[in-house]
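From the thread on structure requests for the teaching lab: each student submitted one protein with a one-line request. Submission from student K.M.:

"Model Sulfotransferase domain-containing protein from Patiria miniata, tokens only."
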Amino acid sequence: MDKYVTLEEYKGMMQMMRSMMAQADLPPRQKPVVDGIVLPPGNDQIVSDLKNFEVREDDAWIVTYPKAGTTWTQEIMSCVMHDGNLEEVNKRHTVFRVPFLEFGMPEPALKMKNMPPIHKIVAEMPSPRVIKSHLPGQLLPPQMWTKKPKIVYVMRNPKDLVVSFFYFTRMMDRSQQKQAETFGDFFDQALEGKTMYGPWWEHYLYFWRKRHEPNILLLWFEDMKRDLRGIVEQISQFLGKNLSAERLDAITEHCTFANMKKNPMANPDTLIENAGGQDTGEKASFMRKGKVGDWRSHFTVAQNEAMDALIKEKLHGTGLNVNCN
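Reply posted by the TA:
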């Protein structure tokens, strides 16, 4: 992607996108819906294009529901695919090393740089590619299921997921309507499966049912917090890399939450100027806290009971157990 745009130019395009979201003539909450899934603006055309996207067998994909640990995992995968060469990794921002397949840059920004949509840039990237997507499994390129590239899928306790997603949507859309939305409003949407990318439980279950396929690795955010070194080694082996203990140690240190948060080549905050505060008094950040159990400072007793009931209803009999401690 850096063939078309510099990091500073990409940053400017991000600002243009956020401004357009806030100033659009259409209501800010109006989003395209594909197969019943609410998607970000422009994603309906992108999903249509992806039906013919050429997947490669040596691709490495990071697929998640938003805010499940995507940025964290993609950085680990990028470091592994660079064989632990962290000096090389730090020469390029993560958005260039691991492009976001369905990220829809605004048309004026693309025209300004004579730049094709990101999914078309990904199509011309050399192998091996590391590719990020939040799309639910049924909307991913069909060749994913015939070419069978390596797919790392990360899940997170849905209570923390909802809290993190709430702050992220407020940061990215600075419109007055979005800023007026309370956590309670967002929680209700999440409970009904009406947030972007659809119900988290359907997103999870699509990959959970494929968990025994050899090209799919399911991880938990909470396990990454508990044993990052072990997860780094697991990802390395899954991606076919036999890295030394020293390299694995170095990647682990590079990919701690604290080190990534202060690394301008790993933290997407680098691309978001003036994200600003919120009426909660908390500064907006792409990499916000990375904590386990932060939901406790946001959920009411009633919300907690409602989420517990939803989890029981949607996951009963599936074998998928989410740890919300």
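TA comment: The beta strands are 33-34, 37-38, 60-64, 130-133, 150-155, 216-220. Confidence is low (pLDDT under 50) at residues 23-29, 275-282.
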